[in-house]
């Protein structure tokens, strides 16, 4: 894509801002700032990845993945304000999921152990896990709020905090996986996923692109389940006081 063609893509942003102005949504500043920030971030990471791909240095690969996990943790943590210690639990859930997912892919030789494969797939895995964490925390706050009387009653009958909050945890993990499961049901029929589309545009065979997309689809499903379950195990006590009563 030429620089001129890339510049013309700003037409879509202008249309969005005009529509926002017309409907008095007040999103013009957010759209403008998001456009500038998004473009700069992508340009920056593009040059960084260009350098890393040339060096293939293990330390740089680990460093980039660590930064991805940190940023994902901060973003997902916004969904759980007031829960002390939630950030390291989110980071642990995402990191464990990343290690297990990438370990299986490399151990089973599903992907090549090169930067070209590790960083993009790690980024997609971490991004998916971040969304799962955010959805889980949102749902848990709602579940605890709506089930407070039942949880208190179970605690009064002698149940442990884990037993009392178990149903809320299960419903929250299920809710966090809904977008992933819905995506599996409609992929190829409603949408052509980004990785597959990108490979086709780049000139790859559609069949080859589909194979890689199936890999991502299956890996995302497993990583979503792992992230939700791990975070539920690590975080459920945060909704209780030291005396093990609901906050």
TrEMBL record:
Pfam family, one: UPF0014
Membrane topology reported for the UniProt record: Multi-pass membrane protein
Chain coiled-coil ranges: none
Subcellular location field: Membrane
The organism's place on the tree of life at top rank: Bacteria
Main location as per UniProt: membrane
Keyword annotations: Membrane, Transmembrane, Transmembrane helix
Regions that span the bilayer: 44-69, 90-111, 117-138, 187-207, 213-239
Family listed: Belongs to the UPF0014 family.
PANTHER family: PROTEIN ALUMINUM SENSITIVE 3, UPF0014 INNER MEMBRANE PROTEIN YBBM-RELATED
The protein's name in its UniProt record: Iron export ABC transporter permease subunit FetB
Species of provenance: Paenibacillus chondroitinus
């Amino acid at each position: 894509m030429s620089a001129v063609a890339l510049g013309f893509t700003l037409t879509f942003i202008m249309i969005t801002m005009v529509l926002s102005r017309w409907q008095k949504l007040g999103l013009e500043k957010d759209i403008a700032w998001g456009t500038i920030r998004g473009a700069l971030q992508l340009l920056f990471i593009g040059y960084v990845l260009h350098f890393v791909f040339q060096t293939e240095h293990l330390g740089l690969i680990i460093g980039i993945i660590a930064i991805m996990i940190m940023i994902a943790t901060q973003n997902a943590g916004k969904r759980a304000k007031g829960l002390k210690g939630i950030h390291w639990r989110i980071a642990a859930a995402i990191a464990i999921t990343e290690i297990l997912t990438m370990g299986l892919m490399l151990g089973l030789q599903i992907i090549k152990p090169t930067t070209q494969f590790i960083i993009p797939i790690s980024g997609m895995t971490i991004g998916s896990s971040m969304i799962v964490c955010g959805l889980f925390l949102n749902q848990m706050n709602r579940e605890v709020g709506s089930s407070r009387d039942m949880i208190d009653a179970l605690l009064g009958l002698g149940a442990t905090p884990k037993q009392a909050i178990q149903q809320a945890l299960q419903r929250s993990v299920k809710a966090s996986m809904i977008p992933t499961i819905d995506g599996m049901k409609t992929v190829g029929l409603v949408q052509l996923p980004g990785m597959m589309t990108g490979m086709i545009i780049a000139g790859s065979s559609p069949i080859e692109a589909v194979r890689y997309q199936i890999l991502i689809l299956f890996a995302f499903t497993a990583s979503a389940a792992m992230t939700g379950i791990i975070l539920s195990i690590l975080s459920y006590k945060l909704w209780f006081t030291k005396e093990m009563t609901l906050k």
